[in-house]
Every structure is written in structure tokens, then in C-alpha cells.
Amino acid sequence: MRIVVVGAGIIGAALADRLAARSQDEVVVVEEDAPGAGTSGTSYAWVNANDPADPAYHRLRTAAMSTWRELAAGFGDPAWYREAGNTTWAVTEDAKAELADRVARLGELGYAAELIDIGRLRELEPRVRAPQDALIAHYPDEGYVHGGAVAQALVRRAGDAGAEIVTGRRAVGLNTGGDRVTGVRLDDGRDLDADLTICAAGRHSPALLATADAALPLVDPSEPGSPAPCLVATTTAAEGAINGLVHAPGLSARPAPDGGLVLEAGDLDAGVDEAASPALMRTVGAELLARARALVPKLRAGVAGVRRCTRPLPVDGYPLIGLQRPGLYTAVTHSGITLGPHLALLIEREIRGDAAPELAPYRPGRA
Predict the structure, then answer these.
(1) Is 66 among the domain residues?
(2) Residues 28 and 153 reside in one and the same domain
């Protein structure tokens, strides 16, 4: 079987790696930029199952965390994966009640979650400061990845296993024969034939799928006020400033691959869209840095860069995974960083004819 995977973000890269290593099929990966250069390489990249609201989805994400451990072990403790733990706190009474409830509900689900005191916070994060009266929680099994480096490593290993890697070329359309998708057309006019085409193109998926009259319910990132775009800043060197993930009121922070920090704050994304000006991005970067200096009082780093991350957001928040037409399989989701390698495992099973019951609630055509 000849399989064409469109997109080499974390989902497409993990699929290519698994398919190339575990089958005699011919695998081709198409990526218009470089592996991991899009959303996977610009996102905050938090690996977690921190929301207890939907137990089935929580179980999927918990299984995905285990798959990450297995994947990283296969690379021999790579620098791009760190199970460094996550610490968060609340200061208002409502926020404290919500956090306490979350920790309790996660604990009932068997998830590692605990309330800690300020002394334990100082042991975990010596340079971080939280208010003395904060309610603090710690999730020791959570972690983060450097998404671009992961995607590159996975695609490189897929190539070593025999996959054909086509970069710098965009898939502009799906080719069809009757009701069946038969491959893709590239922006240089070439046609790549396939027995199965897998659309893992993230935010770009609706445009590609529309060429075969297939729809995908994603939030439109170009709409004014869309929640899909966000801004993420990185700092200059800040070795040892933060050990793991820290989610403080008004700021999320974690180590960056080059020794700096990755910073994000949801309230600063209001009004950010794909046309956000450089001036706005600089303003957001300055505010993120100011918040980081309040969080880590001895921080002396500056802003190294501010990047826009446009997330593929399904309208109902859940993954969109499965066959859409004969010869066409779609794999698009928010939380792609957490879910990507595990989805690749389940999708490979389905491609081999063994339906994955874990994916049944997440089909693209659900009402």
C-alpha cells in the first residue's frame, strides 16, 4: 500500500515514523515548510491530561502521556522531551475552590495530583515566588516537549526507515476518482498517487479537504476575535530560572531548548489575529517578560522573540480522527502535542483493519 501523509507537524511526523518502521508499505510525507515549523514548533507544548471533565477523553490523554514516555525511551532520553512536572496556584477564593476541586477529581481518576505548601514549592522551583496565601498544586507526571525538534527527529527516523520526505512543497488539492481520493497534487503540478492519503495538515486541513468536497469543523483562525491564534514569547538565556512547567495566575512558563524560557498568557491573546502587527507582538512580548520577572524576581533575561501560534481548534474541542472518504483519512486536533504519538499508534491500527474503539467518539463526521 502506498500512503501519503500531508503535514509533518507532530501528528504527521509521528504517523510517518510509525508507518515507516512497522510496515512494508511505501510512505511519502509532504510538508510545505520544514518538519515541525508550524504550530508544533511554535506552541507552548504542554504534555498533560489535566482536565477531569470528560473521563473518557482524560483516559485518552493519560494513555498518550505513557506513549510519550515510550517514544522518548526509544530515542535514549532526548533533550526534546522532559517529564519535569507542573506547578500551579490560585489566589482568589473562587480560583482556589476550582483548583482544589480539580485536584480532588483528578485524584479520583488515578491521576498524580497533589496540593503542596509554599515550602514544597520552593524545593521544586527555588527561584519562583508565589503569594504566601496561595493554594498550590503539583502534577509530577506532566511535562513538555520542544515540538520542532521532536518532529524533525521523527521525520528523520522515518526517512532512515525508507519513507520519502518531500519538503518545500505544498499539497494544493486532493485527487479523486469517483468517490475515492487517489492522492494529492503539489504546488509544482506533480501528482502523488496513493492508496491512502492521510490529512494531518492541522489548521490548513479544511482548505485541502474542500478540494474533495470534504468538510472539517475547525474554528476559522482568520475570523476577527478567533481563539485560534495566540502569541508565545521566548527569552534570552535564563538557565535554572524554572525547572518544570509553572502556571501562575497571568503567566505560563517553562524552559526553552536554548536555555531561555517559553512564556504565554491567555489574556494577552485578545485581539490577536493573523494580521497582528509587529508593534502589537513587541508589546505582548514586553508584558510577558514583565510578568516573568515578577514570577522569577532575579530573572535578567530579555525577549528573544515573539511568535504567533495558530492552533487547529475543532469547534467542539475534541479530536477529528477517521476516514472521511474512501482513500482519505483525517487526523486533526487541538492538543496535538499531547495526543500526537498516541494517535499515530491508534491510527496505524485502524489502517491495518483493526478499529480503535478509543477513537469512536472523535470521527470527523459526527453531528
Answers:
(1) no
(2) yes
Residue 56 CB coordination number (10 Å): 11
Residues 137 and 230 in one domain: yes
Inside any domain, residue 73: no
What is the DSSP code string of 37-89?
Answer: -SHHHHS--EE-----SSHHHHHHHHHHHHHHHHHHHHTTS-TTEE---EEEE
Would you write out the chain's pLDDT as a tens digit for each of its 367 residues? 999 999 999 999 999 999 999 878 999 999 999 999 999 999 999 999 999 999 999 999 999 999 999 999 999 999 999 999 999 999 999 999 999 999 999 999 999 999 999 999 999 999 999 999 999 999 999 999 999 999 999 999 999 999 999 999 999 999 999 999 999 999 999 999 999 999 999 999 999 999 999 999 999 998 888 899 999 999 999 999 999 999 999 999 999 999 999 999 999 987 777 777 889 899 999 999 999 999 999 999 999 999 999 999 999 999 999 999 999 999 999 999 999 999 999 999 999 999 999 999 999 998 6
Residue 89 lies in a domain: yes
pTM of the model: 0.96
- 65 within a domain of the structure (yes/no): no
